[in-house]
Write a structure and sequence with these properties.
Number of helices: 10
Order of helices and strands: HHHHHHHHHH
Distance between the termini: 51 Å
Largest sheet: none
Structural class: mainly alpha
Shape: globular
């Protein structure tokens, strides 16, 4: 009975958000080197996250993300770097630190998201191309905003 309920809930959730979030955990899927890399770059111990979902409740960008901050932390705990980088979640994070302020474990989730952005940028895949930005937008935007965006979104 419990298995049937889980299947219905999983199917309903997948249909609702449009993303299949089933995660198989085994020796092959857990990457200790990826966990260490994320922790080293962020300075945060992702293993202490207790999956309470407070971060997701506080995040103003959750509706724009492919998966919630709680799901990001869950995948980070198992070193699922490739799966994390395949999603847009770390790019949608506004780094507002609302998640950090309310986290009962004091984890700076925005720093974990920044670490994921850094890992992806190290692969030399830019998220923004200057030639694709309309000239009128460039002229209208504050220079400091342009500099910050290019530092954050290009390698």
């Amino acid at each position: 009975m419990l298995t049937a309920i889980r299947k219905v809930l999983s199917a309903s959730l997948s249909a609702l958000i449009g993303v299949e979030m089933t995660i198989q955990i085994n020796r092959q899927s857990v990457s200790v080197s990826s966990i260490k890399k994320i922790q080293e770059l962020s300075g945060e111990n992702v293993k202490v996250c207790m999956q309470c979902s407070t971060c997701t409740g506080m995040c103003p960008m959750t509706v724009e993300m492919e998966c919630s901050p709680r799901q990001v932390m869950h995948m980070a705990q198992f070193g699922m770097e490739a799966r994390l980088l395949a999603m847009n979640t770390h790019w949608k994070c506004a780094s507002c630190h609302a998640c950090t302020v309310k986290c009962p474990r004091g984890i700076d989730i925005a720093r974990v998201m920044e670490a994921l952005r850094q890992i992806e940028l190290r692969t030399s895949r830019d998220q923004v191309v200057l030639a694709e930005i309309p000239r009128a937008d460039i002229m209208e935007m504050p220079q400091i905003a342009m500099v910050a965006a290019f530092r954050k979104l290009t390698s």
